[in-house]
Amino acid sequence: MINCHSASRLISKSREYPLPLLKRFSLFIHLKACDACHNFLRHVEIFSRVAKNPEDSNQDIDEAMKMRILNHLRHHQNTPPNHL
Amino acid sequence: MPNAEETKTINPEKWIDSHGKILFRYAMAHLQNEALAEDCVQDTLVAALEHSHSFNGESSELTWLTGILKHKIIDIYRKRHRITYENEFCTDENADNTDNFFDQSGHWVNAPADWGDPLKLAEKKAFRQVFETCLKKMPASLALLFSCRESLEMNTEEICNTLGITTVNSRIMLYRARLHLQGCIQTNWGLSSEIQT
Ligand SMILES: [Zn+2]
Predict the structure, then answer these.
(1) Which of 42-71 (A) contact B at CB < 8 A?
(2) B53-69: pLDDT as tens digits
(3) B26 in Cβ contact with B40 (< 8 Å)
(4) B194 lies in some domain
(5) How many angstroms is it from B140 CA to the middle of ligand 1?
(6) What's the predicted TM-score (pTM) here?
(7) Which residue in chain B has the smallest CA separation from A80?
(8) Domain range holding B55?
């Protein structure tokens, strides 16, 4: 049976790509018997969930900001690009 | 000299009206700073203006603009963590430096405990604060990579192109980032949840 070090590595990798069948199977067997790695699997999912949904700021772009950006863009558009 | 069709598609006013709100919210969510978010959206549109010829119409306009915005956000992350290409990313593909999390026989040194219902946990403000603190505590290159992968939802190819690392390396580093978070949160969440409940 694989140890926790290998199992946790597989857990992390499984977030990036589908594991080959044999590795998936050995991870499955390990998780059946190991609470710690089972917790790690759940935690890795939590990390992903928390990172993906940052707190909503409730702040919106306002008209003044729109005008500032637009003026900046117009100015930029009328200046001939210097990188060519 | 741009042809008529190309010039027609360049309309910054329309960009702001139709996508400004979404772009700004996206930037705010990842930067938590109004001035930075405004700059970011502005820089995105300037870049879009300069590179409008690279918009091939295959993706939607919003997808294209969001792609540029992601890169602007990464630039700010990089400045925040003072990361440069040259010194931060180890390119040794065998550097699986995770030994201190496990003992000789491959058992956890600090076994992951049951933290409770994952759904409820992700909603808790206190948990988010511990999470953010732990992200700041880990090595900057790991934090940047983790944010690119999980917050900006970049795929492996985008990550490798943007950060100049290999697929193997990015997987090893993501594993290390997750172990860091596991260890750090376990230590600090244990303390704060005792106070909370
Ligand atoms: Zn285990």
Answers:
(1) 42-57, 59-61, 65-66, 68-70
(2) 777 777 788 889 998 99
(3) no
(4) no
(5) 28
(6) 0.77
(7) B50
(8) 4-81
